[in-house]
Amino acid sequence: MERKRQKNGMALLCGLIAGILLLLSGCRSDTNKDLAQAWQYCAEKKFEAAVPLLRDYLGHYPRNPAAHFLLGKCFANRTPAEYTRAKGEFDMACFLYEAGDYAGVPDATATPESFLAEIHYETSQVLLRIVIEAQNDGIAAPATLNILNAALKHANEGLRLNPEFTALANLKSTLEKVIRSALGFNAHVSWVPSCSSLNPTWTKFGEHSQWRKRCITDCAHFTALLKTSTIPVHPHALTC
Questions:
Q1: In this structure, what DSSP letter does residue 144 have?
Q2: Lowest mean pLDDT among 60-74, 148-162, 215-229
Q3: Is 153 exposed, middle or buried, given 0-12, 13-18 or 19+ CB atoms closer than 10 A?
Q4: Cα(204)–Cα(33) distance, rounded to whole angstroms?
């Protein structure tokens, strides 16, 4: 009788353990679906919808580089943008990747190298936007050179990892031109680029000024960047 009772107790314990493992397995499946859904939301630029999913996922898996990367994109693209928090998330994603915590991303076409290149790309963009914001607040261009050089370093590293990354190559070119402009800074002008397609009044503004004309970046690339930015463009722009 006692032996039968022990067997029943053991069977009950095994059943309880199996139930707990099944429950945990189900939770893990749900959170993995959350990450995949958040990735899709970010691809569709539905960043606010992705935030709660990512916060929940990171509550279970705080060392997942992909989740930190996506959360950084959400911070960088919300209104108003939170560039400092975005930079922190990108830095964490990079740190965890290099620490060996990378376990893939929901995008089946991504390689480890291309994912890390994306982190460097987003970091570089955020740093450039921080500089734009600083310029609009009246900070002199030379004071932003350290940030610009850091952005260029990220761009170079991303291209080393993925030489075919066209958007990053364009961003690198923009950064190089902005840095050259900052090094040759004229205290009376802003380095923010312009062309007549951005604002027709800028051409007239340039024609009637005595400032030296300087073409410092590719207008089309910078226009695309500004479309994703909440930062207003400073009117003191030069004409190409």
A1: G
A2: 215-229
A3: middle
A4: 54
Look up residue 106 and give its DSSP letter: S
Please count the CA atoms within 13 angstroms of the CA of 125 that sit on its side-chain side. 28
Nearest to 107 by CA among 66, 64, 49, 55: 66
Question: For the residues 67-88, what does the mean pLDDT come to?
Answer: 97
Which position has the token pair 């107790």? 9
First to last CA, the chain: 95
pLDDT at 19 over 90: no
Instruction: Give which of 222, 225, 228, 224 is closest to 78, Cα–Cα.
Output: 228
| Residue closest to 121 by CA, chosen among 167, 86, 67, 75 | 167
Helical H runs in the chain? Answer: 2-43, 47-60, 65-77, 83-98, 112-136, 145-161, 166-183, 200-207, 219-227
Range of lowest pLDDT (10-14, 124-128, 129-133): 10-14
Supply the pLDDT for residue 184. Answer: 81
pTM (two decimals):
0.68
Q: Is residue 67 a contact partner of residue 58, using CB atoms and an 8 Å limit?
A: yes
